Amino acid sequence: MRNHPLSPQGQYPAAGLVRRLAAIFYDAFLSIALMMVVTLFYQQVVLRFFYGSEGLKAVAESGGLDIDPILSTLLLFSLFAFFAKFWTHNGQTLGMQVWGVRIQNDDGTAIDLWQALLRFLIAIMSWLALGLGYWWMLFDKKRRTWHDIYSESQIVQLPKNIHKK
């Protein structure tokens, strides 16, 4: 499947670390909200269906909901779906739109699902390494993070006037 071109087209500079972190901070709130909704649905609809109200209450009081690998997996897949949809569709999450940055291939096309998966997983590793994958861009000549490098994509800063007519 061919990647579709993103609009606007052009050569844009790499986005700086502060802008990237600001977009991440903004998207973190959306991610938390998504995880809350998924958790609420899972616990109040799915588990209630299997356990019943009293059974679910007993499981919760015994600590049985404290570590739930099914919920953890659902949350991970939900977060990936959220980011992958935005990244592969228009190259921007909501936080990226606010801060004027976009993810794209070198030729200005949207990334594909495989690239989104690589970005997602490597970004998690970057955070687990105390942010080293993000700080890497301060030393890279092309200002790339680990997930930029491994997914063969880039985060660019769009011009401020792209929405003005």
Q: What is the fold's blueprint, element by element?
A:
Layout: H1 17-61, H2 69-89, H3 94-99, E1 101-104, H4 113-128, H5 132-135, H6 146-151, E2 154-157
Antiparallel strand pairs: 1-2
Distance between the termini: 33 Å
The unreliable regions are none
**Beta strands, count:** 2
How much is the average pLDDT?
93
SSE sequence, one letter per element? HHHEHHHE
Radius of gyration: 19 Å
The biggest beta sheet, please? Answer: 2 strands, antiparallel
Q: Helix- and strand-based class?
A: mainly alpha
The dominant shape is: elongated
Helical residues, percent: 55-70%
Number of structural units classed as domains: 1
Proportion of strand residues: under 5%
DSSP summary: helix tally? 6
Strand order of the largest sheet: 1-2
Task: Give structural notes.
The protein is mainly alpha-helical and 165 residues long. The chain has one domain (17-157). Helices cover 59% and strands 5% of the residues. It is built from 6 helices and 2 strands, in the order αααβαααβ. The protein has a two-stranded antiparallel sheet. The longest helix is centred in the first third of the chain and has 45 residues, at 17-61. The radius of gyration is 19 Å and the shape is elongated. The mean pLDDT is 93.
How do you describe this structure in short?
By secondary structure, this protein is mainly alpha-helical. It is 59% helix and 5% strand. The chain is elongated.
